[in-house]
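Forwarding these from the shared drive since the link keeps breaking.
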Amino acid sequence: MSDGMDVCAMLGAVETRSVSPVFVGRAGELTALTEALSRATAGEPQALLIGGEAGVGKTRLIEEFLDTACDQGAVVALGGCVELGADGLPFAPFAAALRALHRHLPGALTAAADGHEGELARLLPELGVPGSHEPSDEDSTARLFELTVRLLERLAADRTIVLVLEDLHWADASTRHLLTYLLRTLRRGRIVVVASYRADDIHRRHPLRPLLAELDRLRTIRRIELARFTRTEVHRQLTGILAAEPDPGLVEEVFERSDGNAFFVEELVVSHEAGCAAGQLSDSLRDLLLVRVETLPEAAQRVARIVAEGGSTVEYGLLAAVARLPEDELIEALRASVGANILLAVPDGDGYRFRHSLVREAVSDDLLPGERSRLNRRYAEALEADPGLVRPHERTTRLATYWYHAHAPEKALPAVLQASVETRKRHAYAEQLSLLERAMELWDKVPGETRDSLRPIDYADAYPACGCDPETSSLRYLDLLAEAAVAARLSGERERAAKICRTALRILDSSENDPLRAAWFWTEMARLQSNLGRGDGWPEIARAQELVKGLPPSAVHATVLVGAAGWGMLRNPGPETLAAAERAVEYARFVKAEPIELNARITLGTIMVSAGDAEGGLAALHEARERTVALGQFHEATRAHINLSSSMEALGRSAEAVEIAVAGIELARSRGLVDSAGWIRANLAESLVSLGEWDRSKEEAELLLRSGASSTKPGGTALLQLAHLATFRGEPARAAEHLAEARARYGTRDPIPQYTLPMAQVAIAVAAAEGHLADVRDQLAAIAETGFPPGTHRYGWPLVLTAVTAEADSRGLPAADEGRPETLALVRRCVRGLATPAPVWQAYSQQVSEELARAEGRETAARWAEVVAAWAPLERPHQLARARHRLADALLVEGGRREEAAALLREAHATAVRLGARPLREDVELLAARARLSLTPETQPQAPAEPGDDTFGLTPREQDVLRLVTAGRTNRQIAEELFISPKTASVHVSNILAKLGVAGRGEAAALAHRLHILDTPL
């Protein structure tokens, strides 16, 4: 151990709560745990979920495993969920586990957290003061999660760590989310994660149920379900407890009464030993659990009732203040409770808890309503009088909980609001939302003078920065709604966020004249409509713009303009959008809202690039990136990387795009910005496809799909890149699967060109590969109907090229003749709307023009040479190889330049082999075979085919048959025209298909035309 500590001392932090001295059964389950420990020690992280009903023996199994882990030198960190979690005690089990690691590995943990102490202090306050409260965003929670995982991985790099999280059925939402993230992203380190939960508590609507379903889909997690003991195992348990062979009648009675539940076995035996006959025990399980409590002295029973209402653990000082007993009497009462194995002294602090939560629940349920509220009031009063009685990070939440259950709204509301601020600072937005909803519940129960005394203590983004002075202005109900809407959105509860916004807008419409607040809520609704897939958000943005029109500049005004500009950047990047972005920058600068200004400048720079001002736009993006990094606004800095890499790709500068993307991913990873890293990685995969680094692009796309990014659209883009690669590599069925998945991620309610156009291109490529020319034409017609908005040429040119290439490849097929003129006219109409602001798009334009000529039978080698020359200096190996193949074909048709054609085919073939572009490779090989050209350099040039030579081994008669096949004739028609029998015609057709290596008559006809098999021999 690098810290020189006695690892077995860690076991002192593990509570032993069982009265059974003998470990019974569970051999298979214990073996699974110890095997996981061995694999983790070898460097392979392990995760196990242990489920079972309350009292079945989950804790005892974990205790036995931890004994083994300590014997093998592992470091144990134990954390348990508490029922207060639902009231806003976020990350409770992780905080407890990290506190244990900090206590026993102080040097190692400090080193592992180096540079991120402020952020990690949100989980472990012992690391220092939590970082400043930056504006909230969807990445802030993911950032904390990523840093936590990295901390654990660093700690587990040279030691085995066993992280135990108990009682997940009580876990708060933030704990559930962090656990899911940990189990999905933990990839290295000597660590075992063990989590337990009560299976009988997981009803159909329990929040843990979807988490368990999600974790079941992860192959890296093993789930262990504990069954009840058999009669034989109950007999062994009784033997261990009694240290003697039990009476058979007792075994039978206990087994029947306990039904094999290990904890109930213990309770029944202890009650029996205390002189309570089995027949005197109530059939009620709650009464059974209360039997031994009721045998305690009166003072001990009173203390047990106080502890039951104080939470999972109650500190001694707080207990003393609430109990109001003389100290000697209190200690004697505690000694009696501990001696009866009702309460336990917690090992890592000065406090007490029940040995089993079932007993605490039974005691709490037995309290009278007035008794419960009185105890909670005493807890609250004691904590207000001496805040040092509990840990600082728990103080506000517990105080809010005590006052709420004391039924004291005037005291509860301020405490709940303060607790909501604390949970927000820890990025625990789900718990913040619960607290704010509790505040809304209390609002009308609180006297007006109390509400008037409340002051705004936190703001949701730009809200309500509209002239309100928090020192003199009272907190309004709308302020609560604004905070709750943002908390709901950030916690993933978008439906609740939308409902809260609608409530606020109804209030504003009916009784409030506050256009700025209304505009803010409409802007928030616009974002939610898009996120929920219910629209593009423009009606909401337009309403917000109407509300702020004519008002003095404000941060809300700037936010509305940024929203409008961002909407237009993605959907309609024209002059109006450019003007909106410029106004947003001006307004934000005027009101000194620099974070909003930088966001607007990133949007403005991106729109400038799309509008044709490449250098000006790139300069604006670089400047915004540098400023956001300098200010520590890393979310906006990574957004600059996203838009910069995308803009570089739009200009055909793919190598620079890759460089920027790699740097952006590193920045995002270092700050824990998982979603931002996902967006950048999607751009990286696209640029790698362009550069011909297809294997690396595939790796990046698959890595993105495995990541913990919460946004779905980057994953859609990753799937699109995989679909493109599949079409390029001759796998249309796989491309169609990826396309379907991408469509599901993007949704259908908010069509954005940067997604819809690439999806249409893939659909066209799949249809072309499968020989469905009608589908190709339908897809092109649908896209042409909606048009190509300004700035979408980067998606439009590849789409049009894919479609016109399919037309050219099908030239000469009778079935394709009908409708071809209309389709080619449609291609020309599309081309007129596409810009060529960079050399790469000029090359696309030239190739589309020559494919149009090929589709009409008027291509020339000279023009194909111009296409090759356009692609040659660009970093587009696949496009260059395709152009070289077409030039070689044209040269061979025109005749006389065989050596030049051979060189072109060799270069194209080498590229196709390196990329794994099977369709291109096969086309090159077929053309070379027909022309009798070698694809490997030879000392003696191969002789050209003689005019009388067979083509692909086809006999003259088979060539005659093939001509009629390409004309669409049936076997009977071929027989009649060539004066042969239908059977002979059928044999010829079968031979032709075999020699050409195709599956059907249509493919044979297409191949004959594409390779000029029936033209003048080359």
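-- next protein --
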Amino acid sequence: MNDRIVIPRNRLTAALVMALLAPLASPALAQESGSQDGAPTQLDQVIVTGSRIARTGFITPAPVTAVTAEEIRGTGATNIGDLMARMPALSPTYTLGNSTRFIGTAGLGLLDLRGMGTSRTLVLVNGRRHVGASPGSTAVDVNTIPVEWIERVEVMTGGVSGVYGADAVAGVVNFILKKDFEGMELRGQHGMADEGSFDRSFVSFTAGKNFADDRGNAAFSLEYSTQDRFGRGDREIGRRFMVSVPNPDFDPSQPPSQRNPQNVFARPGGNHSISYGGVFTIGSFNVNNPTNRYLFNPDGTFRRARYDGVVVSPTSCVDCDFADLNAVADLEPAFDRFSANFQLNFELNENHRMFFEGKYSKTESNFYGQPAFDQPIRIRRDNAFISPELGALMDANGLTQLQVTRFNVDAGRRGEDVDRQTVRAVFGFEGNLGEDWTYEASVNYGQSKIDRRNLNNRINERWHAGLDAVRDENGNIVCRASIDEDAVNPHTGTRYSSFASNGCIPFSVFGDGAVARTPEAIAWFNTTSLNSSTLEQNVVAASVANSRLFSLPAGDVGFAAGVEYRKEKSQENTDPLAALGLTFLNAIPSRGGEYDVTEVFAETTIPLLADLPGIYNMSLDLAARHSDYSSIGETLAWNIGLNWEIIDTLRFRGTLARAVRAPSIGELYNPQSENFATINDPCNYQPTNPNRPDTAEDRALRVANCSALGIPEGWIDTFSASRPGVSGGNPDLEEERARSWTLGLVWQPDFINGLGVSVDYWNITLKDAIGAVNAQTLATRCVDSPGGIGNQFCAMITRAPVGGYVDPQGRDFPAYSITRWVALNENLAKSRRVGVDLEIDYRYNLFGASAVSRFVGTRLLQSREWQFQDFPDEFDENVTYYTDPRWRATLDNSFEFGNWSASWNMKYVDGNLRVQPKSYNANPGSARPIMNGSYTYHNLRLGYTFPESELNVYLGIDNASDKAPPLNYFGADIGSANYDSIGRFFYMGATYRF
């Protein structure tokens, strides 16, 4: 498409536009603007300023890193989310592999800049907002963005709320899509893992054409990708069964260290307190004499549990009968993605152009996790499935009820099918208003619809009624509730309801496969729970700019201003049975809300000095935005940026900003609902507990406070499941406030052609951070408080009394165990990230080949979290923890020689701790290994373009050395997602343009 609209501008105007849009500009483009001061510039060039990767991030005041379309295609990526998580500036908070750890998040690709949270990274598409993808949140699922439609991605660090509005606390990720396309292009790719049955496939088709004497261009793109579900047990790393055990060679006369560790790993081992077929214990379990624990064989008979190795605790053992939990966990969910994108540009005349962007995306995610489990099942003596041998054992021990812990795999693994449909449309006009003024006005509508089906969601009372089987007067096996309307559920202590008794189907739970032998019972007590959500976003924006508002001795002052109105709405309708707490799924009620915001903003670029010794050029960027929210009232954000070109090859840049983030709909309006948390009890003396009293900074204080709670010294918690609690929103929340600043140097020496180096220091401090004090923190701070146990943390934790406690859902908690916690959103916390980014970009010739090498690395200096900002000395420093390695880096090398192309990409993760730094400092020998070594991954690709043809074929290998992740890391959380869990992966593909 030939560009007809032109806007006169000079070098200072270019600086203004860069401040507005945070783009990239190459030195060649900057020199062209300077040498042709006042020359006409194409409108497209104003909006999308430069794309050469060798010049990435070398103009704007804030640090900017970009990924181009060629780089994206060169990785063989089939979805953009996992590729972006590879960047050192972004934490892998939501990859496909770890997206299944929360309810309803399977398949999401949410970006987390500097590890400050997905809600604090603003994701834009062509500089405009995009509708969110998760109920109650504005976080954008970048997996809905088509890979082939991307021209480049720009990542800017630092608070830029003054430019873009709320959420840009850590920075902005801007996806710049193709604005026009001529011709047709077809691409296909298929790959498979070296180990296990895991495949990925991708196909795309793009077509476009100019029309109306090249005044307009219309183009569309269709894209489809798919990948298989990949089970943890499908890889050897999922069949190692490594568990932590006390070190038999530990020397207590010497301080713990890596040479003298208290705990080591051994195999094969696992959890022996539960099994697929059921486990029961006669009397109290004694780890030193484990002869009274039994398990059921597949045929329903029972035997003593086997213990040929170390019995670590009532839940963990080595060389014994244990449950294989890895067999019911996935490394990757099944994921299908389809997207259709359309764009239209049309020049109405020499001064005005219309544009339209349309998008439809559908993703389907499927995964299976653990089944429903019971700790315990209560089976009465008269149960119809109790064998004479089992009955005799119960009678001999005076038992009227048998308590069986069971991992109910044969009743169906729980899973999720999540369908997300996203629609987005942007319509607008842009152009000239007179000689110096330009404008843009647009409307932007987005909608996300999410249907989540929770598979094999157990209806608890029906499960209880079905396993409570007896014989009727004719000797038939029936449900007790079917013949006795006053029958009491032994798990809840209440009468069975008609919902459970009507149509009740009895079944046995004795032995793995017992439940599956009665499929009609499974169909009766399991259900598929449907949860439907809709998010809507409406944005109306208009802005004007003048590149020559007036002149100063150093150049022209640029100015821009505008208004924006945005409305966000979210509604989630949950399954009625689940909402009432009648199923195994969390009891989450329906929820929703909305807010709107009206904003005005202004920006200016002021040339300060030029053509002086040591000041080739110096300009100041200023930006401010005033926002008026219907939810929280008024906020103000601002940005200051300085560009100082010392000489034409050396540039200083710096920014100072105040950013804000308004609370999301979920944070404000979510009702209090049931949630679950894994808690390492600080009063649990189990030697392998990473939070045992021995690991406390003040052991004596913790022991005293645990004793004050009535917990005896040496107590070992035998409850191994996650613990129920309550979490929810708070309509009285206020905005988060952040202060960020960056300082950097950019060097492009004229004596090394093609070399560019940048180094940037960045510092982001967030105050009034929104969040709930997590259950682990509540439990730990309760007993680590110097003032005793009469504190607010202990008030949020409930423990079982002497004798234990059975909750209304039938969960059996041993004495002193944590039974409940409460955590509501508040503006309590503080967060800080400090680091240095280094980027080296070099274009050169290598034995006749055109080569590009690019190093991008982040050195993390601080990663601090304050649970309570009012206590400035009480923070966790997470640098060197496995979630925050000190160094993350990539080195990408690409080569072109004639029709051949090749790339060699490396990813580096620095060595890190498997425990939090404060725990390591308190006891560096608590376990071995306590550190993970440094990792370097190698990805290779080779391509060939046939002569006189537009056909390109390529093949590639990811993780070429087949490097396995650290011990027991499966990519299921933020930290372990730094490591590849798939193993060596081969792919091949072809692209044909016609």
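Residues 277 and 512 are 4 Å apart (CA to CA). The first helix runs from residue 11 to 21.

- D.
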